[in-house]
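Sequence and fold
=================
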Amino acid sequence: MSEQESSSEPQEFILPSSTSASNLLLTPRKTSSASQNGTPIKSETNGTSSCSATPEKREKYHRESAEVAKKKIKLDINPLLDSPDKNGNSEVENLCEQYECSNRNCCLQLNPSCTAKITCKPEGGETEYFHLTKCEHICMICCEDLKRVGRPMFERYVEWKRNWVEASRCTPNLRVFICEQLLPFYPNCSKCGKFRKLAADETFLLSTDFLNSYACETCDEPEDTVIEEAKKITFIQSISAPPLLHDAPAVHYLRGEYYLDEVGFSPVNDRFYIDDCPTKKFMSPFNMPTEQSMAFSVRPDVMEYDEVHSFPEYSIEPVPFLAMRNSIIALWNLNPFDRLTYEHCLRSLICRGLIRIWYATQLKRVFNYLELKSVINYGFIPSPKVPLLKRIHPCEKRQLDVIVIGAGVSGLGVARQLRSFGVKVTVLEAKSRTGGRMQDDWSLGVAVGCGAQLITGIVNNPIVLMCEQAKVKYRPLGDDCPLIDSCIGRHVNAAADRITDEHFNSILDAIGQWKLKSKIGDISLMEQIKLVHEKLLSSVGFRWTNEMERLFQWQLGNVEFSCGSRLSDVSARNWDQNECVGQFAGEHAILAEGSSEIIRKLSEGLDIRCSNPVVSIDYSKPDKVILHTENGRKYQANKVILSVPLAVYHRGIIQFEPELPEDKSEALRNLGAGLIEKVAVKFPRKFWADLLRKDGTIDYFGNVPKSSAERGLFNMFYDFSSRSSTNPKNQQYVLMSYVCGDSVDIVNTKTDVEVIELFVEALQELFPDETIPIPTGYVVTHWGRDLYIGMSYSYLKVGGTGDHYDMLAKPIENKLFFCGEATNRFFPQTMTGAFVSAQREAGKVIESYLSEAMPPPKLE
C-alpha cells in the first residue's frame, strides 16, 4: 500500500440520527428518534468480577422497532464536514471561527516535533490541525503519525477501524479514533469533586473502581480554565465527533440488539459485563426489536414525549440525552435494592476528553428528572441523604405541606414518595386501618386477599419489585385451567372448548374491527357481543350445542369479572381501551402471603391519622386548601391529593367548595364503580386432588355454568391451600371464588351461611362422585356495604372513553390532585395501576410547586 493510499480516509462518520450537537438548543419537536476489545471491567453494581470471555461477533439485522434502522442518517453537524480532502482532512477552519476557539494547543503531542502552539492558517494557507472541540485540537504532525503507513500509531488505527466496522453501520474516521482511543481522561476527585486531567498512558483505561477511589494531589488548586468551558451546555455544539460513552451499564441489555453508537455508546469500548443479573426475571428496562412492547420498557433510541417536553434542547439531537438516560435506567434496573445516586451514575460515566465534564454537568438534570418521574428510586429503599426537592431548588425556603386523603396503596404510595422528595405529608384515612382495598384475612390459616391479591404481569411491575425488595412471597400462576361442566360433573369436551374459544376470540376481533371502522355511537358490550355472536352462527352454519353455549357463558363470566360489572353496563367501544399500549408482561402471579407486609412497609415513617373521614374540601383560597373531617377536626395544606375509591365520589361523601369542575363531573358520570365479592372456604381435606398437576398443586379450575343466570356465580375456583413442605401436618385446604355481574348481590340478599351453602352446592355439582365435606371456616367479603370503599375497581360505562380516566386524574388549580386506579387510563382496575398513579402524582405535585417558585428553577 502506498503512503498516499494509506492516508486516504473513508467517508466521514455518519452520525446516528444526527448525533452531533451543533443543532442542540434548536426548536423542539413533539417526537424524536435516535435513532471487543480490551480487558473486562468490574461491575460496580454487584461487585463481582466480570466475565472474561470476548463476546461473539454481533449479527447485524434489520431492527424493525428503531427508526435508525430504516435509513442511513446523513451527517448534519456542519456541511463542511461532509467533504474531506484527498488527505482525509475536513475543512474545519470555520468551526474554530464559529466557536471562537482560543486554546489551540495539540492535546496529544505524540510526536517529539509536535507543535506546542498551533495557528489557524500558517503560511501557504494549508490547514495544519484537526478541530475536535472548542478546547481540543490536534496538530497535523500527530495526525501523520496516526494515518501513515509505518508511523508509530498506524497499526493501532487500522485495527481499531476493523473492529469498529464489525460493530457499527457507520464509517469510522480519524476524529472518532482520536476521541475514542487517545484523548486524555478527566476523572473527578472523590474528595473535592474537581476534575483533573490525567497524563497520557496508552495502557490505562478509566473504570468505575478507579473513579471510586481517585483523589487528586492538590484539592485546593482550582480547576483548569478549559474545564469551566466544558461545563457550559453549549460546549457540545463545538464537537466534531460523536460523544460516545464507554463501558456503559446499558450495554448489558443492548449488546447484540442495537447498534451501540446509535444509542450513545461506543461500539468498541463495550466491556461492561456481569456474571448474573438478580433482576433479570422481573425487570426488562429496554424494548427489544424482536419482542412485543411492554409496560415500563423504554425504547433506548427514542425520547419519550415527556422527555422532549422537559429537555427540548435535545429534541433534534437526542443521542447525548439517550446515552445518559439509558445509563441511569440500566444502573437502577441492575440493582433496585439500594438507592441510586448521582455520584454512582457519575462513576459509571466513562469517556475520553473534555466531553466527560459536559456529560457530568448534564447528568444531574437527567438524573433528577428520572427520579422526579419515579422511573428510578421507588419502593422500599433507603431515604436519600439530600432530598430531591433540596437538590433541585436548594434556595427555596417555603415549606411544602401536602395532605393525602386515603391510606390505600395509592395514598400510601404517593405519601411515601413525596416524603422521600423532602415534603411534609399527612395522611387522613376514614377507616380505622390502612390498606384500602388491599386487605388480608388469615382466619383460615392462609392469606385470603379480600381485595387485591392478583398481580397482572410480573415483568417491570412495581408491585413485584416491592415484593422483591421486602422479600414478600408471590407465586406465578400457570396457564393450565381445567374446565369442569357443572351439568355433568366432568371435564368439558376438548373440541367444544377449542371451538368456543375460537368463536369467542372471533367475536372480540370483530368488535375490534367495528370500533375501527364504525362511526356510530357506543352501545353496551353485551349488546354488541350478542349481535356478532348471532351473525357468526348464522353465517358459519354449524350446530351450536348446549355444551358450547355453556362454555360461551363461562367466557362471558370471565369478561364480567375483568370489568367488575354487568356487560350490559360496559362500553363496547372502549371497554379494553387500555390495551392500546403495552401492558405488564410475563406470568400473572398471586401474593401468596397477602399484601399486609406491602402495606405495612409503605406506611413506615408516615404521619397517618386513621378514623378521620374528610367531609369537606375548600380550595377557594389562593394559597391553601382547608379540610374538615367528620369528627370536627380542621386541616390545611398547600396541596391535597385525593386517593379515594370512585364510589366515594359517586356517593357524595366529600363536599367541594367550589364544586368540582364540569370535566370532573363528566368523568364521574362515565366511569362506573365495578363490584365483585369474594368467598373463601376451608375444608378438612383436598377433595379436588384429581385435578392436581404432577407436582401436587393447581392454581385454579373453571366452573362452566348451567345457564347464563349463573355465569357470575363462582365462575372460577382458586386453590389457596398452603404449600409449605416444612410443616406437612398443618396443611390448610382452602378454595376461593367470587361472585360478579348479576350474581354479586347475593352477598347482601343472603346470609353468609347461605352463601357458603351455595358455594358447596356448586362444588358438589363439579365433583358428583365426592361427598363435599362440611367447611371448617369461611370468609365472605362485603365491599359493596363499605361506606368508604363501596366497590372493587372501575370500568367504562356506555359512552365512556379513556379520556374520562384522564379527566378524573387532572389536577384542579394545582391545589387538588387525584390518584388511584380510576385515574390511570392505561393500567386501571389493578393495585399496580393504583400505585403507578401515586408515583405520577408525586411528580406532578413537585412540578407544580417548583413552577410557583420565583425565579423558576432548573433541574440541575
